[in-house]
Amino acid sequence: MLNFLKLKNIIPSKMSFKESAFGWDGLSTFIFSNILLLATLGLAFFWLFWQTLKTALFSRIEAKKEADKELVKRQTLLIAGLCLENNQPTDEFKSRLNRALLLLKKSMVQESRARTTAQEQIQIIILGGFTGNNRISEARAGADYLIARGIDAELIVIEEQSRHTLENMQHARALLMNKSVNQRFKQLSAPVIISSRYHLYRVLTLARGLQMTLQPVAAEDRFTLSIISLLRLLKEAYYLHWYWSGKLWVFITANKKSRARIT
Predict the structure, then answer these.
(1) Mind listing the pLDDT tens digit for each residue in 243-258?
(2) What is the DSSP string of 60-128?
(3) Which of 52, 85, 111, 211 is 20 to 30 A off residue 259, Cα-Cα?
């Protein structure tokens, strides 16, 4: 049976613009970000683009090995969700889920001679709520995909309330701090976050802003430069510029509502 993140419902059936993922605070920081972008001739934007590209190029495809191999560390895998197509994971979302499957299989081989099995050491948290016109959440679709491939449903926690990457990280933090979720895990090494290469730098930036330490693992074996991947990198850099502009906006205005959105 799947485990659910139990937080206050943030997705009412009818949302006003103010209650939406964008909202008036988001609009204010969006305008401020674009003003800064023009005023600085895009210098910060291009630096963020370079950092995004560098992370896409050089991210690992497995978690870092523990220095003390005799000490069995409990491991949490976070999987970033992605918009579905007709209630099913897209190929890109499947690549993230498949990376988790590969890590699980490798862990089972490495721990076959240990006292505890790999499945006793690992928990999987899939992030992603309801997007588009889909009838199921990204997290639920991801869980169904893994369960159909032999993963025990008891190992999976699904977070179905987030609407974008920042909320993914906020809710992941809530889960990692939730004693009922982590009661089986006496020791936790830094959680792994699995996502697409172009997306990892933004995930890590948002996580650091929430005082989270994550190990990035890329879904794809390598980064392939193409027009589509270039556009994705540019979009990620733009979102990051908006995020940092929002933090500056909060500092200048001391706006509590804006601060609450990014912390």
Answers:
(1) 999 999 998 988 776 6
(2) -SSPPPPS-TTSPPBEEEEEE----BTTB--HHHHHHHHHHHHHHHHHHHHTTTSSS-HHHHEEEEEE-
(3) 52
Rounded to two decimals, the pTM is: 0.85
Residues 6+ apart with CB under 8 A from 21: 163, 164, 167
Long-range contacts of 18-22 (CB under 8 A, 24+ apart): 21/163, 21/164, 21/167
DSSP conformation class of 215: E
Nearest to 122 by CA among 138, 137, 106: 106
DSSP conformation letters of 6-55 = -------SS--TTTSSSHHHHHHHHHHHHHHHHHTTTHHHHHHHHHHHHH
Burial of 14 (0-12, 13-18, 19+ CB in 10 A): exposed
Inter-helix orientation angle 138-147/91-110, to 10°: 50
45-68 pLDDT, tens digit per residue, is 999 999 999 999 999 988 776 544
Of residues 220, 233, 147, the one with CA closest to residue 139? 147
Tokens of 233: 């990198």
**Six-digit token string for 224:** 């392939």
| 260 vs 189: CA distance, rounded Å | 28
pLDDT confidence bin for 190, thresholds 50/70/90: confident
Residue 156 to residue 127: CA distance in whole angstroms? 11
Question: Mean pLDDT across the stretch 89-112?
Answer: 86
Q: What superfamily would CATH give domain 59-224?
A: HUPs (3.40.50.620)
Closest CA to 258 of 14, 7, 25: 25
User: Tokens standing for 183?
Assistant: 């009661």
Q: Which amino acid is at 224?
A: T
